[in-house]
Amino acid sequence: MIHAQNTKVVSLITPASVATNATATATVSCVGFRYAEVTLHLATQTAANVDTTMTITEGDGTTFATHADLAMTTVAPDTSSAQVYKWFLDLRKRKKNLKITYTPVGAARVAGATVNLSRPEQAPTTAALRGVTAQVVV
After folding, report:
1. 68 located within any domain
2. Could you tell me if residue 125 is inside a domain?
3. Which of 22, 25, 67, 71 might form a disulfide with 101, Cβ 3.0–4.6 angstroms?
4. Residue 129 lies in a domain
5. b/e string for 114-135 if b means 16 or more Cβ within 10 A?
């Protein structure tokens, strides 16, 4: 088995414009997986001094808690290049659900987020189990 095929991708935040001081948020169940790579993609921004709020929290139900080891230091938005933020998470010490929250401050911004779940208890063998619409394995 090729290890890259042993993953599931979940679209958390579909690429869309997030209005000023609005919040884009999504939750994913990590049951059956032991590792996650959460990626937040942000488009270029018109003002380099705009701060953003982005967090990952964890929970077992409807209550989510923030932990210091999930915090990420944000940088000023880039006016000429897209930005990519990534969390690498060992799920063995996490609660079963992760939630990502993104809030632009000062100006709307296009954002999208995905999570790649890996180290599954049972290997995914179909496109649906891998979280994709279609696949080619050659």
Report:
1. yes
2. no
3. 25
4. no
5. bbbbbebeeebeeeeebbeeee
Length of the chain: 138
Residue 80: CB atoms within 10 A of its CB come to: 7
Structure tokens at 36: 């996650």
Give the predicted TM-score (pTM) of the model: 0.89
- Which DSSP state fits 35? E
Neighbour-count burial of 45, counting CB atoms closer than 10 A to its CB (0-12 exposed, 13-18 middle, 19+ buried): buried
Cα(94)–Cα(132) distance, rounded to whole angstroms? Answer: 25
User: Residues with Cβ < 8 Å from 73, sequence gap 6 or more?
Assistant: none
Note the pLDDT tens digit of each residue in 82-138: 889 999 999 999 999 999 999 887 788 899 999 999 999 999 999 999 999 999 988
